[in-house]
Predict the structure.
Amino acid sequence: MHTNALASGEPEMTAAPSAEPVVRVRNLVRRFGENTILDGVDLSIYRGEFIALLGRSGSGKTTLLRTLAGLDDAGGQDLRVPSSRAVVFQDARLLPWKKVWKNVALGLKGAEIKARAESALEEVGLGHRLDAWPLTLSGGEAQRTALARALVREPDLLLLDEPFAALDALTRHRMHELVQSLWRAHSPAVLLVTHDVNEAISLADRILVLDRGRIVAEERVAGTPAERARLRSALHEKLLSTLGG
Amino acid sequence: MTRAANLGRYLARARWVSPVALLLAWEAGSRLDIVPQRILAAPSVVVGTLFELTVSGELPANLLVSFGRVAFGLSIGVSLGIVLGLVAGLWRTGEATVDPLMQIKRMIPSLALTPLFIVWFGIGETPKIALIASATVFPVYLNLYTGIRNVDARLVEAARTLGLNRAAQIWHVILPGALPSFLVGLRYALATSILVLIVAEQINASAGLGYLVNYARDFMRIDIIVVCLMVYAVLGLAADGLLRMIERRAFAWRPSILEN
């Protein structure tokens, strides 16, 4: 079973072979009342890795992300996450009473906060909307602002909670490309939670499938976009059957 | 022909036509003695009285006294409402302590406290200001408290992931999020303060709008009474306009206001 292979410390084949993972979770169990949401999850994420976490609704994937984000208290669990982490949610969650650049700058410390916020917004192609009010942004623009807000912190771990789910197909495609290029430029470890198999294949270099609170499958995706495309149909079948079972 | 038709359509939709028609009918009724002067003074007489009272300084002086009472009472009531609203909104123990007391207080009509306040504070300025203060605490308290409690939890969560500590979350997320509701409370408080002022000034006042009304009643000066009624209405309008201005500035980020 894949879970066991992960738990025993399967040798990692990432591009950056740093021995210390950025995230290390051992036998994570989360219960809410009678329900066991996470039932012994083992997970290591290495520097610069892009991981997609696939699962149906109720599989526990959002709970896992929230635990890694520090939003749910996981007292007494074997959990190591970097303190420098950022989250992009499905909804942009911008403060409507702060202009776009102020949203990006929120909570930043140190010098030249405005300049840093501006360059982050320019990086996501929103250099022209610095002084816009968030409620005037389109869905895609709002999500790009949320991305800029996450990346301006230069996080070691970037957590993406279905950030493209509410966008139209064309905007989603553009966002995929943007996230890829930002990931290459900043190389944080990324955990993308999604229920879209295609999205997982086209973005991630490792795919984990979560079902009933356990990681039930792990797939590596490697190579150029063309190779990925060839892999896609084979992987698609496999992942869908895993999800279906 | 079309110009006349346009004018007719304009008049049919204009909102000032019916009030002006009422004024004209009232004036005509007075002149023709259908409305006797001892029942209601004619608009022209009221305007004349308004002018006289203004020039003699009687109206401005009394208005200033009333305004001072409202300002003093409101500032106490609103400050207290803000403090209690913050305590109950931001702090669970504070909520358990403050909210039951405020709900009990709400069940006692503010004006019913008048006899008690007279016994406690006499018949000077203190009971008038205390009445206004006690009546304006609750609307501010309730709206601030529920405003804080209704702030979008997802925004607070996002602020947490950005590394904002509790104080920064309150400052950047919770208080701005509660502001619209707070301003609704302030609007209620302003309206209430004018209402309570009218009653409070019936307590042995020797100055103020209420005093002027009492004096006019004793001397059957209907025209002065109508002038004072108009002044109350104008005060209400001014309070509303002030709050609209504050809201326009505070909510520049709202698209509905952006479009206008």
Helices of chain A lie at 2-7, 61-69, 100-105, 113-123, 139-151, 169-186, 197-203, 225-244. Chain A touches chain B at residues 69-71, 85-87, 89, 91, 93, 95-98, 106-107, 133-136, 149, 153 (CB under 8 Å).
